[in-house]
Each structure stands twice: as C-alpha cells, then as structure tokens.
Specification:
Helix content is 73%, strand content 0%. It has 13 helices and no strands.
C-alpha cells in the first residue's frame, strides 16, 4: 500500500509541479502552424475550383456563426478567405504561443477541415485532432494564483500525454490493421501500390517488382509501426525509433507522392523528443561529421 501511495504521489507531482517539455511543445506548435500555412498556400487554387460545388449554409445560431463563419465566407469569396487565413497564420507564427493564438489556430483548422471536406485525406484529420490539443498546451498567460496555476499546469501536461497517445494509437491501429491483412502479410500490398498510377512515383517503375523484396518491406512496415508504439517511451531507443520514423515517412513521401501526410506524421513525432534529447542529437551529428 505504501508503494502504491508513493507511486500515486509521484504521478500527481509529475502532472502538477511544472510544465512538461515546454520546449518540445513550442517547436511542435510552430511546426504545425508552418505546415498548415504551407498546405493552405498550395491548396488555394484547387480549393477555389471546388468552392463552386461545395455549398456551405450560413448557420443560424450565434455560436455556430462564430465557429464556422469563416467557412461560409469561403463559399462566398474563397480568395478573401484564403488571404485572411494566411495572414492569421503568419501572425500566429510571429506571436508567442498563447491561449488566444492556439484557439485561433484550432478555429482555422476546423474551418479548413470543413471547406476541404471533398478533398480531405488522413493528414487533414490528424491536423484537426492535434489542433484541438494545442489549446490546453498553451502556457500563456501564466496564472499567478496557486489553484488556477495548478489547473493550468495539469491541463498542459495531460494534453501533452493525450496528444502523444493519439499519435501512438495512429501507428498502433495501422500496424494491427496491416498485421490482420493477408495482403500485407504476403507482401502483395506493395505490388498493388506499384499499380496506383495516381500516387506511385513513376521514377521508381520496378522498385516493388521483386517478389522477395516486397514481403521484407511489408513486414518491416508492420514491425516498425507496432514497435514504435513501445520504443518512443524508452530512453535508450526513443531517438533511434524517431529517426527511423522520419526516414519511414520520407520513404512514403518519395514513393507514394504523399508529402502532406508524410510531413504531418513527421511533425507529430516531434512531440516525443525531450529537451535532453536535443543534446544527444547534436553529439550524434558531430560524430557523423568529419572532424576539422
């Protein structure tokens, strides 16, 4: 009972003593905003084309008007909407993250998800879900009174854990789904990928034509997604697992021409990098570079 009590007390102190990994959360948030700015800039022309066929009704209630009003503005004047979104995203990047900036970012992410529903993909869903957690991840303004400050710190730390778990569950669900699929276990999935003319990179015409290579790649993908779920929580294997994850998504980017999803998942892995890990990464880079 004493050991259980001590563990509960340590866990409680972990969530209430101070903000966990503020450096990583700041980098993550800015990266997420930059990603959204890049995607908005690139999808502007396509979104303008579908605006003619994507009708958004003006909401009746005041709360709904505030929440999805920008989406209605898009249906009327897409160019004004996108120009306004880009200006707001640039302002969010320049300003220090706060409850206001993070709430505005979620508000923009929600409306972007609504207007791009006809062309949405996995990256848009992940962006929308992560944008929700960005609000409690805020640390400014810092409350001075003890009780509100404890609530603020707890909300931040719980949001950090929930966001990490959300990313982990994406890999876990994908890994289990592939493990249960005969197409993936046999390696035929990569053969199917080779025939996806819309997505498959034509520069690699025979990359997945090898009957021996495909099962190896298939099982490597399954094992990576399942093992990453556990390895990102360990001090010894966290950095190698995250580097492998970056390479994995870069591979998806090149082979399947899915830059938005690959970049979205690469940004989500930043959440697992601890402040102490940055020194380890710097030392590793120095060892790899030739000495002067």
């Amino acid at each position: 009972m004493l050991a259980l009590k001590n563990n509960i007390e340590r866990l409680s102190n972990h969530f209430t003593d101070d903000f966990c990994e503020p450096f990583a959360t700041r980098i993550f948030f800015r990266s997420l905003v930059l990603y959204t700015l890049l995607k908005v800039s690139l999808t502007w022309p396509l979104s303008r084309m579908i605006a003619v066929h994507h009708t958004i009704s003006f909401p009746r209630s005041l709360a709904a008007k505030i929440l999805v009003g920008p989406a209605y503005l898009y249906s009327q004047t897409p160019d004004i909407f996108y120009a306004s979104v880009i200006c707001l995203l640039v302002a969010i990047i320049i300003l220090d993250p706060s409850y206001l900036t993070n709430t505005v970012f979620f508000w923009l992410a929600l409306n972007l998800y609504i207007i791009n529903l006809p062309i949405t993909n996995g990256s848009d869903i992940v962006l929308f879900m992560l944008a929700i957690w960005c609000i409690p991840l805020s640390r400014r303004p810092v409350f001075k009174e003890p009780y509100p400050k404890v609530l603020q710190i707890t909300a931040h730390n719980l949001a950090l854990i929930c966001c990490q778990l959300q990313v982990v569950f994406i890999y876990l669900g994908s890994g289990i789904d592939k493990l249960l699929s005969e197409v993936w276990r046999s390696g035929e999935a990569f053969e199917y990928i080779r025939h996806l003319e819309v997505l498959y990179n034509p520069v690699l015409p025979s990359f997945f034509a090898n009957d021996l290579w495909n099962p190896i790649l298939s099982w490597a993908t399954i094992l990576f997604e399942l093992l990453l779920v556990a390895l990102v929580w360990t001090k010894k294997f966290r950095i190698p697992a995250l580097i492998t994850g970056m390479i994995f998504h870069l591979f998806i980017w090149i082979v399947l021409s899915l830059p938005d999803f690959a970049l979205m998942m690469m940004i989500s892995l930043i959440f697992f990098i601890k402040y102490s890990d940055y020194d380890a990464i710097k030392k590793c880079i120095r060892r790899l570079l030739p000495s002067g």
